[in-house]
Prior knowledge:
With 220 residues, the chain is α+β, with helices and mostly antiparallel strands.
Amino acid sequence: PHSRPRHPGARTMLPLLLLLLATAHGLEEVRYKPKLAGPPLGGLTTASTFVLEQPRCIFNSVSSDAVIWLVVAVPEAVAKFNNSVKPGTPQRDFHGFPTTTPAYMTLNTTTLNYPCPPTPPGEITVLRVGSETSCATDTRRPTCNGPLPGPGPYRVKFLALNDSGPVAQSMWSDPITLKTAKPPSSIPVMGSGHSAGMIALTSILSILFAILLAGLVAML
């Protein structure tokens, strides 16, 4: 018997099927998209970190015993992301990201740390992703909030879990691209390949030498 050809729309239906499966398990879809913190805060993106706004007043209906995780993923892993895979497992290990682990989970906390209403103006309430260097090579910390391995792009979402499994999730963020460090050869120079500081130093030394030479001539 001949094999039945695969329906061309099967792959495009996968995200919808995952959404329906989540709904069947009682997973609440929160209409919130994570985003970078506001412009007044400097260093929103670096070569290995980025700063997100805290999800304040977002998971109001989630019980206080639920744990809210930040999911960091490469864009290709978003459509097939499985909410049922627990944090800290090999499939969600930071140390394999992104080569063997296309997504990891970190920055776990409870709703008590994301209170509602938001904090008063002037108080900084952000999350810096990639700030933990102490556990970057410690494989005993699979949920490490370690430095990101490259410029990305990355996409993130918040996922609330309790003992029975996932209970609520936010939308996925837009792609976040980090800064790229410039090689030394790309640093602009002035004049004939010398920096402005070198030119100034050379000028000062030339003047001092001229003064010293004039003093010696006067003595003779």
